[in-house]
């Protein structure tokens, strides 16, 4: 298990490093949404995610909801295939947030 870290790479760019799992997503993670208000457009790069489960998908959905409430345009890139598969199973793959983007 690798601890979840949100790393600021620039004013509008963040990298997620570690696991997006039930074991790594805690109350502190859920309280750390303020990074989504740092700019009118925010990109979250998921290339550093090693393992994920449905909790990772749930966190991404919460980020999307929070961004909408705060009028922040949110995009994800380098979404791990495992998360894309979970999104497909859940029907969230139709959202523009889950469109495949890579560097």
From TrEMBL:
PROSITE patterns: STAS (PS50801). Pfam families: STAS_2 (PF13466). InterPro entries: MlaB-like_STAS, MlaB_ABC_Transporter, STAS_dom, STAS_dom_sf. Residues 14-103 form the STAS domain. PANTHER family: BLR2341 PROTEIN, INTERMEMBRANE PHOSPHOLIPID TRANSPORT SYSTEM BINDING PROTEIN MLAB. This is STAS domain-containing protein. It comes from Candidatus Methylobacter oryzae.
């Amino acid at each position: 298990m690798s601890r979840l870290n949100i790393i600021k790479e620039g004013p509008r760019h963040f990298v997620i490093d570690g696991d997006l799992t039930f074991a790594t997503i805690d109350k502190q993670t859920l309280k750390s949404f303020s990074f989504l208000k740092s700019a009118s457009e925010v990109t979250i790069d998921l290339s550093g995610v090693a393992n994920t489960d449905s909790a990772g998908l749930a966190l991404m959905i919460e980020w999307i909801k929070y961004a909408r409430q705060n009028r922040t345009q949110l995009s994800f890139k380098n979404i791990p295939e495992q998360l894309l598969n979970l999104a497909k199973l859940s029907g969230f793959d139709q959202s523009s947030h889950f469109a495949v983007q890579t560097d």
